[in-house]
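Entry type: protein chain
Record version: 2
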Amino acid sequence: MASVVVAVFAFTPESTVPFVAATLLVGLTYGILGVVVGIVLGRLGGVYVMLFSPMVDVLLFQNPLATDAPEWTKLLPSHYATNALFDAAFTSSIDVWDFGGAVAYTVALLVIGVLVFYQATDVE
C-alpha cells in the first residue's frame, strides 16, 4: 500500500481512484496466485515461479512500449488489470470492461485459491 501512496505522489495519474484500484487489483491477483502456486509446487518451487512469472507477464507481455503482444497473452493474470492501470494513469476515459475483467479474474483466482487452500489444510 505504501508503494501506491508513493506512486500517487510521485506521479499524477489522470484518474487517481481507478489508478489505485487497478494497482491493488494487480497485487491482489498475484497474491492469490502466489498462494495457489505455493501450495501446489511447494515453498521453493512456488518462490521461483512467483519471482519470475509476474515479471515476465507484466514487463514483457503487458508492456505497451513493446511490440504487439500475441493474442494468448489476454489469458495471463495481469492483462485486464494492467490495461485498466494504463488507462487510469494516462487517459481520462476508463474502460469498464478492463476493470470488469480484472475483477472477474481476481474472483476466479480467489475461488480456486480457497478450494486449493481448503484441500491442503483439510483436517480430519
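Comment: The mean pLDDT is 88.
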